[in-house]
Specification:
heterodimer, A: about 260 residues, mainly alpha, MetI-like fold, 2 domains, B: about 260 residues
Chain lengths: ~260, ~260
């Protein structure tokens, strides 16, 4: 009984993938004009790699999107950690800046796109700004929660040793909140990868988001499929690669 | 409530908002920022009241826009709930279901809802069905993930107690695992609501001819920043209200936990 079950457990994932592949083949065979076959998609990928679309090769499209996310998330992390720390430590800052922040936070980042396009056009800066707005809120909220969850014992120890305000903030509270901060940055990277697509669809000359919406305009389903695969793979990589250096950082602080 | 407490929770935030709005208004009135870039708060109030009855410029009153957005968002959201939560619960409890659905789910999960929009437009057009599909997808992933984690995190002691008392596998699933997963499931519902509301805006901006997302998109094309900012504020406000409703519901659903 037990052995048969383990055998079944190994067969089930393969079966589901086979069913998915079979479903794709069946639909593309039944409605070739609507749905591209795997072979067609593969061919399109070869063509896309060989012949650049919009005078930009495929890897540059991917690289441009990643660059926008990295710049925006880096800026949002620096600003967000500082703002979150101050909000967590100072009641006055929380009551003033925090109030404004809470007013703006419920607006989805995508809803900023029209206004930012009116303000800054469709260059590189507005796209980064949109991602920045979307990721800043996550970093601030997580940092703030992290600060609030710092063990009071650590704060008391600091007080006993007469730590100054700045020492308290940067030597005790900041390191103790680091795991939550990194959790926030990690989430921000994932969200940033989703927003960059929206930012690029409004008006861009490169990027994966640009590519997938070009596929939409040209009714080029194989291109859309390829882009979805690429977006999914990079999204999965972004969430998988990250924990390594996060762990190292937090460990380094514990060792001290 | 002490005096400093009230100062920090009520007075200071009120003063901040007042100063913020005044500065915004004055900056606009003094002409530092032209009204084609940022409308003044007073203009927004005016636009709000005219837009309540006026269908211009994009073809629907504010109420119609809100109603259309909400109906699409709720359809997609509840569809995702009905499919996603049971699926997640079963994936968490039954190894076979988990093995079968995991590969497909893991392939689909990292693709953001926005990336589904082009495919949906080509296959389903820009009607009601297409938008509901995108929103359903956005809400589906957090529902499944959280229900799954909730069941996986069931305290083993509770399961062992049930086993000792002679409960069957099905009984344990229904009476132990599911109730203990409720907090995680509700957290998933909250995430799903936020995700579906933001996906709705994206879907309406790209593939729609009505709704709040369409309104702000049209505001951009017609250079009407007052419409955009008004739309943004209403989108934010509704998002906030919805999350408050879910939080209240969560408290109600979890009341039994505090009875000792």
């Amino acid at each position: 009984m037990k052995e048969r079950k383990t055998w079944l457990y190994y067969a089930l994932p393969i079966l589901s993938l086979l069913l998915l592949a079979g479903g794709w083949l069946y639909i593309s065979a039944a409605k070739p004009e609507l749905f591209p076959s795997p072979a067609e998609t593969w061919e399109r990928l070869g063509k896309l790699i060989k012949r650049p679309l919009a005078r930009v090769p495929l890897y540059t499209h991917i690289f441009d999107s990643l660059k926008r996310v990295v710049i925006a998330v880096a800026a949002a992390s620096i600003m967000g950690v500082l703002l979150g720390l101050f909000m967590g430590v100072s009641k006055t800052f929380q009551a003033t800046f925090g109030t404004l922040f809470e007013m703006i936070r419920p607006i989805p980042p995508i809803a900023w796109i029209p206004l930012i396009t009116i303000w800054f056009g469709i260059g590189e800066f507005p796209k980064i700004l949109i991602i920045f707005i979307g990721t800043l809120a996550i970093v601030v909220t997580n940092t703030y929660t992290g600060v609030k969850l710092v063990d009071p014992l650590m704060v008391y120890v600091g007080q006993v040793f007469h730590a100054g305000r700045m020492q308290m903030l940067f030597d005790i509270i900041f390191p103790a909140a680091l795991p939550a901060i990194f959790g926030g940055i990690r989430m921000a990277i994932g969200v940033g990868w989703a927003i960059v697509l929206a930012a690029e669809m409004v008006g861009a000359a490169s990027g994966v988001g640009f590519l997938i919406f070009r596929g939409n305009e040209l009714r080029d389903l194989p291109l859309i499929f390829i882009c979805m695969f690429i977006i999914g793979i990079i999204g999965a990589l972004l969430s998988a690669v990250h924990p390594g250096w996060k762990g190292d950082c937090v460990r380094g602080i514990k060792r001290k | 409530m002490t005096k400093t407490n009230r100062w920090n929770t009520m007075v200071l935030p009120a003063i901040t908002i007042f100063i913020f709005l005044t500065v915004w208004e004055l900056v606009g009135a003094a002409g530092l920022v032209p009204s084609t870039y940022l409308p003044r708060p007073s203009l927004l109030v005016q636009t709000f009241f005219t837009k309540l009855k006026d269908v211009n410029p994009e073809g629907a009153t504010l109420i119609q826009n809100i109603a259309s957005s909400l109906s699409i968002s709720f359809s997609g959201f509840f569809a995702a709930l009905i499919v996603g939560i049971p699926l997640g619960l079963m994936m968490g409890y039954f190894e076979g279901v988990d093995r079968f659905t995991k590969p497909i789910f893991e392939m689909v999960r990292p693709i953001p809802p926005i990336a589904w929009i082009p495919l949906t437009i080509v296959l389903l057009g820009i009607g009601f069905k297409a938008k509901v599909f995108i929103i359903c997808f956005a809400a589906f992933v957090p529902c499944v993930m959280n229900s799954y984690t909730g069941v996986k995190m069931t305290n083993p002691t509770l399961i062992n107690v049930a086993k000792t008392c002679g409960a069957s596998r099905m009984q344990i699933f229904l009476n132990v695992s599911i109730p203990s997963a409720v907090p995680m499931v509700m957290a998933g519902v909250r995430l799903a609501l936020a995700a579906s509301w933001s996906a709705l805006v994206a879907a309406e901006m790209l593939a729609s001819s009505s709704g709040l997302g369409y309104m702000i998109q049209m505001g951009r094309l017609l250079a009407r920043p007052d419409l955009i900012v008004l739309g943004m504020l209403i989108i934010g406000l509704i998002g906030l209200l919805l999350s408050v409703v879910v939080t209240k519901l969560e408290e109600k659903l979890l009341e039994w936990r505090h009875v000792r």
